[in-house]
Specification:
The structure holds three protein chains of three kinds. By secondary structure, chain A is of the alpha/beta class. Chain A is about 35% helix and about 20% strand. Chain A has twelve helices and eleven strands. The two termini of chain A are about 30 Å apart. The chains are: A alpha/beta, B mainly alpha, C alpha/beta. The interface between A and C is large, with 45 and 39 residues.
């Protein structure tokens, strides 16, 4: 068994606030193998974006990593000096974000931004850079690449900006691409195009993908393995098929039931209550106040991940059968 | 305490001191600001005269304290008039749109085409040097700023969903403007007003310094600096220094307060 | 007798394309629809489809450039301010961004009470307060929230306040513009259930706007699909989703992310994105992206034509049976 490309263990992140210290991540374990597409799913406030930023060490104070490890390609990232980390970003791990137009520099044309990147990381300039830029545009299936390279972000549509951002992310041939809600702000037909593009890129480049989303449909569409996140920790990990067929964690089960499905009427209040305040976490299991299967043990003891079968993990004292 | 909070608190404190001094000047000042004593002219700072004495033997400490009254009055008056007049024009322009908007904004363009101080100078010169004219001159030059601010605020808020909802629920336009839009527009304007008060004090001082504002021997900081400028080369630095210091205090205090006011006025802090 | 009848509604914006040049942006191109009491019509489309603009024009939040809106027998487009205001109460809207739709400086109780006072629906502060408490109860908000400010509430709670405000007007029609798009899945489910419940209790008609077909299918029995300002298909929701006739509807249905990883949905993946509504060929606006388009599609205007009972399509090839069956 080969070691995973990305191995996150017990990652904890805290934010200092005027009202106290908020533990936003309380011990995240996550693996991504080479060429694998893993989905990180959770609702707002669960900490999935923070996880991505922590992996890339892009957290700004008052947020900081307070524990755990992030191993990428055998190297420990949390202790790397910033100069080394800068080489990992872009070359090893790249990231694309939710609002593509806002994530691109508004005063530079797409070609200029690509050029800067190519010059810095690969030392390419002039015609070599232009050739590579056109190649990248083709790779992300941008129509009329020459026009796009000359254009500014505000002149391009959302889908084209997202493709441009993917091109920028892949310019230095990273092994892992982290996509943080990359399709959320796009129209649904464009979303499908982008998801299919990402799948094709995975096939052709052997790219590993960490898709962060709140949309279970996106997960069903594109991911091979899924990690479900709640209140700063991973509550369930499973191959996508198994997760959808037989979710073990009560939160996962309720989340799947809450999806509006074509033809089915929505359930009442599938998950009563609301997400816990990171400054005021429940004792024991973070989900127990809202859980339909909770018992006294759940309020007292924090569940550790149990491994019911190969490739699965559940943090629950009384998982669904 | 965060740096920003400390700065705002400092600004608030400095401004409060300024206001208190202005209010209590008649009781705090040891001497009549107009009283002269030629025998005691141009004495350096001492126990009897903390800021020294001026060309005519007047006590500079008392004059600086009384100056606070005048300059604060001028600033408040000028900014107040500019705010009300400019705000009204801007609100009308933003709300009505169309021809009214164009006409008003072009009028503002004309006013803003002149450098701020030159315009104030021109108006003051045309009206004649006196206290009310000084206030009017400074007010007029600042009207365009508030007009534009208010207009852009109204334009932004007008299409906000809550404004649409207010219309949808059945509010007449008047209520939409006064109950919904305006309370959400004046926050940046108030901040601007606080910041501009400092500038207004500088303008008043500047105009008086060159003789187009209040005249000697009125205790106004700009006039006092004018009176003291010649003394500097003769070595009597204190005549111009303390009024200058007072202006600095006022402007810094108001600016710090203005910077912090933005956050303080945000309803999300409640 | 329909509650709402919209005929050939159009909305055009003049857009500056040069220093002096103005070109018309046709946001809504002759849309027609009908809605009965207590009924829900789904309005589906992506960005630029004109669905939100259509709703705003129906509610007279923006004035239509053309067409008519008949509500309860009265023609709304010709009503001026004073006559329109009492009518406004009967057509309410719930917006997409709940935080932005509530005045941040007003307590939510005041926001909900405002229509009661404006339309004289309750007399005296005690009656107003009692009604506000009642409305809060209907939308599932605890009474202590009445004195809160919007930013102190969660997204789901804010949206419930917006719904309470709409209900305070005692409307007959509520337009819901993507009411749950900004919310989490679990919150969304609860809110949709609430809306259905309220409809059953109060006999409200809903105009339910969404880009999410799954959500629309849960809420509306009839649905209308829009693309770049034109209505391309209209019919019973189940029928439309199972057997979409218009190529764009097929693309839209295809794009819904699959339910489970092993599902194999029929797919029509269209390339490109909706073009600008500025450059307009006279015919079908989907033609540039349609795999089955021919010259006639681009050149001739395509009105809605019935294809089955209660089901109409704006595509002559679909009506003529020239399109391949779906799913293939």
């Amino acid at each position: 068994m080969t070691t995973p490309l990305l191995q996150v263990r017990a990652l904890t992140v805290e934010f200092g606030t005027p009202r106290g210290v908020a533990r936003v991540l309380t011990g995240v374990d996550l693996d991504v193998d080479r060429g694998e597409v893993v989905g990180l799913v959770g609702e707002s406030g669960c900490g999935k974006s923070v996880t991505a930023l922590a992996i890339l060490r892009l957290l700004r104070p008052p947020g900081r990593i307070t524990g755990g490890s992030v191993a990428f390609d055998g190297r420990e990232l949390t202790t790397l000096p910033e100069s080394e980390m800068r080489r990992v970003r872009g070359r090893g791990i790249a990231m694309i974000f939710q609002a593509p137009r806002e994530s691109l520099n508004p005063v530079l044309s797409v070609g200029a931004q690509l050029g800067l990147l190519l010059a810095r990381h690969d030392g390419l300039g002039g015609r070599a850079a232009t050739r590579r830029a056109l190649q990248l545009c083709e790779m992300v299936e941008l129509p009329d690449p020459e026009r796009v390279l000359r254009a500014y972000p505000h002149e391009l549509s959302g889908g084209m900006c997202q493709r441009a951002m993917i091109a920028l992310a892949l310019a230095c041939r990273p092994a892992l691409l982290v996509a943080d809600e990359a399709t959320t702000a796009l129209d649904v037909t464009v979303q499908l195009q982008i998801l299919l593009l990402l799948r094709r890129l995975r096939d052709s480049l052997g790219l590993a993908l960490l898709l962060i989303t709140h949309n279970l449909g996106v997960v069903a569409e594109a991911c091979r393995r899924v990690a479900v996140m709640y209140a700063g920790e991973i509550v369930e990990t499973a191959p996508a098929d198994e997760l959808f067929a037989a979710p073990r964690h009560p939160y996962t089960r309720r989340l799947l039931a809450a999806r509006p499905r074509i033809g089915a009427a929505p359930a009442g209040d599938p998950i009563p209550g609301s997400v816990p305040d990171p400054l005021n976490r429940p004792t024991g299991c973070a989900f127990h106040p809202r859980c339909h299967r909770a018992q006294s043990r759940c309020a007292e003891q924090h569940p550790e991940p149990a491994v019911p079968s190969a490739g699965r993990a559940v943090r629950c004292h009384y998982p669904e059968p | 305490m965060r740096t920003a909070d400390a700065a705002t608190s400092a600004g608030l404190a400095m401004t409060l001191v300024l206001v208190l001094v202005a209010l209590l000047a008649p009781w705090l000042a040891p001497y009549d600001p107009y009283a002269t004593d030629p025998g005691r002219a141009l004495r350096p700072p001492s126990a009897a005269h903390p800021f020294g004495t001026g060309v005519f033997g007047e006590d500079l400490f008392s004059r600086v304290l009384w100056g606070a009254r005048l300059d604060l009055l001028i600033a408040a008056g000028a900014v107040g008039i500019a705010l009300v007049l400019g705000g009204a024009l801007g609100a009308v322009a933003g709300f009505a749109g169309g021809l009214a908007d164009e006409a008003l904004m072009r009028a503002m363009d004309v006013l803003q085409a002149f450098p701020n101080f030159i315009l104030a100078l021109g108006i003051a010169a045309a009206l004649g040097p006196s206290l009310p004219n000084l206030v009017v001159a400074i007010a007029l030059t600042n009207v365009p700023v508030y007009a534009r601010l208010m207009r852009s605020q109204v334009l932004t808020q007008r299409v906000a969903p809550y404004a649409l909802a207010a219309v949808g629920v059945g509010n007449p336009m008047v209520r939409v403007l006064f109950v919904h839009l305006l309370p959400n527009t004046w926050s940046p304007i108030l901040v601007q007003a606080t910041l501009q008060s400092g500038w207004a004090i500088l303008q008043a001082a500047g105009l008086s310094f060159i003789g187009l504002g209040v005249r000697v021997p009125t205790p106004e900081w700009g006039v006092m600096i004018g009176m003291g400028v010649q003394q500097v080369t003769a070595g009597q630095w204190w005549v111009a220094f303390f009024p200058g210091l007072a202006i600095m205090w006022a402007v810094i205090g108001l600016n710090l307060l203005g910077d912090g006011l933005q956050d303080w006025l945000d309803p999300k802090r409640r | 007798m329909s509650l709402l009848a919209v005929a050939a509604l159009s909305k055009t914006y003049p857009v500056a394309t040069g220093v002096f040049a103005r070109r018309p942006l046709v946001a809504v191109d002759r849309a027609s629809l009908q809605l009965r009491e207590g009924e829900t019509l789904g309005l589906v489309g992506e960005s630029g489809s004109g669905k939100s603009t259509l709703a705003r024009c129906i509610l007279q939040l923006e004035r239509p450039s053309g067409g008519t809106v008949t509500f309860g027998g009265r023609e709304l487009t010709t009503l001026a301010g004073r006559e329109l205001r009492p009518m406004r109460r009967l057509l309410q809207m719930v917006f997409q961004d709940p935080a932005a739709s509530l005045n941040p400086r007003l307590r939510v109780g005041y926001t909900v009470a405002e229509p009661l006072r404006l339309h004289g629906l309750r007399a005296g502060p005690a009656a107003v307060r009692a009604r506000v408490d009642e409305l809060f109860g209907w939308v599932g908000l605890p009474p202590r929230h009445v004195d809160r400010y919007p930013h102190q509430l969660s997204g789901g709670q804010q949206q419930r306040v917006a719904i309470a405000r709409a209900l305070a007007c005692e409307p007959r029609l509520v337009a819901l513009d993507e009411p749950t798009s900004a919310l989490d899945v679990s919150v969304q489910a609860a809110l949709l259930a609430l809306l259905r419940d309220l409809q059953a209790r109060l006999g409200l008609a809903y105009l339910f706007i969404s880009h999410d077909l799954a959500v629309v299918s849960a809420m509306a029995r009839r649905v209308m699909v829009m693309y770049l300002g034109q209505v391309v298909e209209e019919g019973p929701t189940g029928e439309l989703l199972a057997r979409p006739r218009h190529p764009y509807t097929r693309a839209l249905v295809s794009a819904v992310p699959r339910d489970t990883p092993w599902a194999e949905p029929a797919r029509l993946v269209v390339t490109g994105e909706p073009g600008s509504a500025l450059a307009r060929p006279p015919g079908c606006r989907f033609a540039p992206r349609c795999p089955w388009a021919v010259a006639r599609c681009r050149d001739e205007p395509q009105p809605l034509r019935p294809i089955d009972p209660g089901h109409a399509v704006a595509c002559w090839r679909a009506v003529a049976g020239e399109l391949p069956a779906w799913p293939a």
